[in-house]
Every structure is written in structure tokens, then in C-alpha cells.
Design a protein that fits this description.
Helix content: under 10%
Structural class: mainly beta
CATH superfamily: Jelly Rolls
Number of helices: 1
Strand content: over 45%
Largest sheet: 8 strands, mixed
């Protein structure tokens, strides 16, 4: 059975920041929605690339050699092994594509850490 997923409805259903929610799965990848505000933790994913598609707001993606500003309707793919730190002054709503095994803080243990098996599906 096919389902149409209404992203804004999913995003409107929660307020937490830095807590991705699974809204779909395909080809070994989770499709997630998340809200970001403030600063996240520096981290890298040894085995996974990840894609951030900004729906609302501006994501400041800190890299070791600078900052990328990603606005609504734009995306960035962070290759595996690249250290990065998402941040934003204002609320950002984002769609993420990552392998189902992706741990949100990658190689770092932090208060933000959520194991892949513990992600909420909405």
C-alpha cells in the first residue's frame, strides 16, 4: 500500500529540536524530519553519507574549513568521514536521508545521541 507523507503535518506534530523522526524508509535509507535550533555537536560518520534538505530556515553547517549556509529548498550531502556541526540561530526544519544504521552523533557520545534502533517512527 502506498502512503502520501505530508511533511509539514509530521513536523507540526512535535516540538523537540535535534531529535530526528523517521517518516519513511527506502533502499536501506531512512527518510527523517528534524527541527534544529542552536548548536549541535561536532561529529563524523565513518561509514555513512548524510543529506540535509532544508525546508524552512537556514542551516549553518560548520566544517573544519568553513561554514556552509543552506537555505530553504537547498540541500547538502556530507560525505562519510567529514567532521561537521549543524547550527542555526532560528528554527530550521529539515528532511534527512541516511542509512538506517546511522547514529545521529556518529563517532561521538553526547547528550544528543540517539541510537538508530531507538528512533521514533511517526
Amino acid at each position: 500500500m502506498l502512503d502520501v507523507v505530508h511533511l509539514q503535518g509530521k513536523l507540526d506534530g512535535f516540538d523537540e529540536t535535534w531529535v530526528p523522526k523517521v517518516v519513511g524508509e527506502l533502499n536501506g535509507q531512512y527518510v527523517k524530519v528534524a527541527k534544529f535550533q542552536g548548536e549541535y555537536v561536532w561529529h563524523a560518520h565513518e561509514h555513512e553519507d548524510e543529506m540535509f534538505l532544508v525546508l524552512e530556515g537556514t542551516l549553518h553547517l560548520h566544517l573544519e574549513d568553513g561554514v556552509l549556509d543552506v537555505g530553504p529548498g537547498s540541500f547538502v550531502i556530507v560525505p562519510r568521514g567529514v567532521r561537521h556541526k549543524p547550527a542555526s540561530e532560528d528554527l530550521v526544519e529539515c528532511l534527512l536521508f541516511e542509512p538506517v544504521s546511522t547514529r545521529n552523533t556518529g563517532d561521538v557520545d553526547h547528550g544528543f545521541t540517539i541510537e538508530a534502533a531507538d528512533l521514533e517512527k511517526i
